[in-house]
Design a protein that fits this description.
Blueprint: H1 2-17, H2 19-31, H3 33-55, E1 57-62, E2 74-77, H4 83-91, E3 96-101, H5 110-116, E4 120-122, H6 127-142, E5 146-149, H7 170-175, E6 179-185, E7 201-207, H8 218-222, H9 224-240
Parallel strand pairs: 1-7, 2-5, 2-6, 3-4, 3-5
Antiparallel strand pairs: 6-7
């Protein structure tokens, strides 16, 4: 329980003490949006790295060279834990917005940081609003902001991934940006498998070879979600061994 208490105290303290930083970041953004983007990313990445340190996460990273450092991409991965976001965002080489469920938009202070980092809030029960979110994501990628999405739609506790929602990969198909598939192994062992305890855990994060939709054949492109899911599942299964 000690790690859980320490992480909770750090997170609450960070969110409260960052209230004046919100104003500073807002002012910076009015005069220099690029500086604001970079500073917001650095602050949150630092906070996430502290959380990982307190939690005792031992991280093995594979295939990080597959992640382009000079262009926007669409990150697609499996989703098993709250720590998936903490781990992957702490490693993001460039500005990256995450697709989050609509309910996250109503969490005070946390949602402010998410908006600073160009996160998008998806209403899964409203098809029209969901389409608007995807279209906004397309515009973000065109402007150089990477997007990360977990197409299972929820955290999954089983060894096999839930079917990917095909619409979520339209952002790559419409922009031509590379899809970076990634698989995370053992993240549920940090927290969810023994809630409320946080335990020291070895996590494997592997990035696969970039997928360029326009280079796929017609059938693969038609079912891009299933194609990408198979790749991620293979990486996950291999690392589980």
């Amino acid at each position: 329980m000690i790690r859980f208490i320490l992480v909770s105290l750090f997170l609450i303290t960070f969110l409260i003490l960052s209230i004046p930083i919100h104003l500073i970041e807002w002012i910076i953004g009015k005069f220099n949006p690029q500086l604001k983007n970079k500073s917001s990313q650095n602050i949150v990445q630092w906070a996430f790295k502290v959380i990982l340190f307190i939690s005792g996460v031992q991280l093995t990273i594979k295939g990080f060279d597959n992640v382009p450092k000079d262009k926007a991409v669409l990150y697609i991965g499996n989703h098993r834990s709250y720590f998936d976001i903490v781990i992957t965002y702490s490693l993001a080489p460039g500005l990256t917005g995450y697709i989050a469920k609509k309910e996250m938009e109503h969490i005070p202070l946390l949602s402010t940081w998410m908006k600073f980092l160009h996160c998008l809030f998806l209403d899964r029960d409203n098809i029209k609003e969901g389409l608007k979110t995807i279209l906004t994501g397309i515009e973000y990628i065109k402007s150089g902001i990477s997007i990360c999405i977990f197409p299972e739609g929820t955290r999954n506790s089983g060894p096999k991934m839930l079917p990917f929602k095909e619409g979520s990969l339209k952002m790559a198909d419409k922009t031509g940006c590379p899809i970076i598939p990634f698989a995370m192994t053992n993240t549920r062992d940090i927290f969810e498998n023994h809630f409320p305890k946080i335990k020291k855990t070895h996590v494997i994060l592997e990035y696969g070879t970039p997928i360029y939709p326009k280079e796929l054949d017609r059938e693969q492109r038609k079912f891009l979600g299933a194609y990408t899911q198979n790749i991620i599942q293979e990486i996950y299964d291999e690392n589980m061994k």
